[in-house]
């Protein structure tokens, strides 16, 4: 069952830009639709829609999440088999294989090469047979961390 | 919820640029699986009787495996099938890399090409469309250059299969490459692609591959991965070489457990056998007339696994492979990097030609990969030319001034360049040794070693008669990736399949027993063929299956991915059906199975006078008959009987 767009769609086209399979079409400021043959249920349209106008494959309305809060893959290189299933599963091709982990471990590890392209779909996590990938909300950047409350605490 | 397969194929008619999408009914997958089974089912029906392999009537199919993309391990093999121009028989070639899931992500289990284009084209497919595009700017470029240009154009997600100059020039020993040097090299199918003027395929689909029960598939994969991870450091590579010597000296042999071979693969890759194999007589030397006496450790040191591994900077894993037997190596000279030369390439370009130059192994491997030419057949053809030179059949006049003495590295390099360019003597050799011998005559055919026209791989049937049987009886003759007595030991099929011979790991037996033309050996060989058809229908890697059928759970994976509830015996019957279908393909095209028998020299007729295989010969006729009998084919002709065809539900086209 593919994702669907409800009548609340304002035609802002945010989903069109984020969809990795170009499954969404429609004129600007008009109701958009999802091509069910092309939809891969990655959920990016639901996460980006500001009008909560997207239903997932189970018919539930999706909730918008700020893009900086979308989950990103973190690879546990100890359990990773370097099999590249995750790299193939990624619909935006944002993962790549690293060079050898070290002199004693000549195998590579997948890493998030293009962070901006990641849509947080979690296919890499769900297709990994050995659960070496976990999707986590990225920690806020250091320079953006609110310093003021900490200072207050010290005072 | 899916069943692992996509349920559709795409057919491209290159003559008129038309595309045809076809749904494949579920019962076809249940009868033939996907992968090579599906290809055999379609090509048996669709390639007309007597079709010219290099003509528009031949159909070239690219297929993925049933297990590819379902979460099972080792399922990254893609396969090419068609009528082979090298042997005139059923032809297929198998390759790793990242191309296999890409076929399924476009929504298809296979992409088939009919007709022929009148100008160079390449196929582009994504989830939305399929297009043929002009490839005149790519024609003449090598496989790596072409892949880089197309990758640049279509981005990192595009998966590309391509032929090089060898395929374009219709060399009958050319293959199809992906991932910059992994080649589906055998059966000469690169020439079929070249004859259709199809330079490349670019696949950029994003469809999801849905197994029936992914959790169950993953659970099986995790157990399998534990076995892959189980690794004992094997020490320096000289230990493998000395083990080879020990295996030669002992009068007894021991049934092998694939876990040991897995450890060798994990540490060195296939090259782990580079020195061991010639020592115990597994690798042919000096165009199959030499032995370990001619290629002692001092000489085989040029291909020392540790030495080759020194230039490896990262392991190379095919899609869904936890093992990583491949490697990427840095190189000095014209090319900065290459895939680690595999065992077959090293021995074909090394020991078979008595070439002791390590650097040349890397260089020749890379130029052959770039040209899209089979390293096994190329090495074997050069070795044959060297013997003709030694015997005076070829002189410097014939060889454009090249001194083709055994082990003359610079002459080898020049000759292989000529073969790739089809220049002078290279034009004669570019189609393999059988055709070269037909062109040269003068008794040179006495020194060719082939089965049905294809040069066998670097595994000697005089050491393991199982190889000799499969070289001779397989519908695609000369293939080393189906069965052998060693493979049978490692597959450990008896643990799952009833009524087949048991060969427990480390069971000791006398070497002489290997050469008996017994029912047990025929049954083992037939089981290998059946099982490998299941493996090739699933898209699994043979090296993965060497771990044994309980550790690499082929049958359980298939049930979990498809939702079927088939018993191992049911799968073996599917394998039997596919094998019979491929044999029926050959009969339909007028092939006499008896003519695919391996050349005398490689069978020990007459036996060698010295070395590891001294005094050994293979009772090939008896073994071929016994093998055919196991399949219910006519034991004297190798033709599937009407009764067998009816039992397996195959219609007779002959």
Number of domains as seen in the coordinates of chain A: 2
Largest sheet strand order of chain B: 2-1-6-3-4-5
Low-confidence stretches of chain B: none
Question: In percent, how helical is the residue content of chain B?
Answer: 25-40%
Give the CA-based shape of chain A. elongated
- Kindly name the structural category of chain A: alpha+beta
Overall geometry of chain B? globular
Amount of beta strand of chain A: 5-15%
Oligomer classification: heterodimer
Strand order of the largest sheet of chain A: 1-4
Total DSSP helices of chain B:
26
Taking the sheet with the most strands of chain B, its summary is:
6 strands, mixed
Strand segment tally of chain B: 17
Approximately what portion of the residues of chain B adopt beta-strand conformation?
A: 5-15%
Q: How far apart, in Å, are the first and last alpha carbons of chain A?
A: 56 Å
Distance between the termini of chain B: 41 Å
Which stretches of chain A of 5+ consecutive residues score pLDDT under 50? 150-155
Largest interface: A-B, 26 and 34 residues
H/E element string of chain A? EHEEHEEHEEHEH
In the CATH hierarchy, what is the architecture of the largest domain in chain A at level 2?
Answer: 2-Layer Sandwich
Average pLDDT across residues of chain A?
92
Structure, described:
The complex is a heterodimer of chains A (155) and B (654). By secondary structure, chain A is α+β, with helices and mostly antiparallel strands. Chain A contains five helices and eight strands; from the N terminus they run βαββαββαββαβα. Helix content of chain A is 17%, strand content 14%. In chain A, a hairpin with a 7-residue loop joins β2 and β3. Chain A is elongated, with a radius of gyration of 19 Å. The C terminus of chain A is likely disordered. In chain B, the strands form four sheets. Chain B has a six-stranded mixed sheet with strand order 2-1-6-3-4-5. A six-stranded mixed sheet of chain B has the order 8-7-12-9-10-11. The longest helix of chain B has 21 residues. Chain B has 654 residues and is an alpha+beta fold. The mean pLDDT of chain B is 97. Helices cover 39% and strands 12% of the residues of chain B. Chains A and B meet through α4 of A and α3, α7 and β14 of B.
